[in-house]
Amino acid sequence: MRGMAKGSLVDPDFFIIMDRLYETLDKRIEHWYTEEKKSTGKMLGLGKRPKRLKQLLVERMTVAYDLAAAFFYLHENR
User: Fold this and answer.
1) Strands 3-4 and 16-17: what pairing?
2) Beta bridge partners of 3
């Protein structure tokens, strides 16, 4: 769940909804690495799981987008 009201920070109607993070980005990158190794298969692509690889890519791109949006917001609001 994510969200933020528009308006001034001192406005009584201002609110922020934040996600709870259960791990650091370093840990998540390690997790992605091990999942990718499991999903690429062994010799000659045996055991390859293309759907899982696509899921990992979508997850990584979503995290990258969220980080970029957060940095953009911080930059715009100093």
Assistant:
1) antiparallel
2) 17
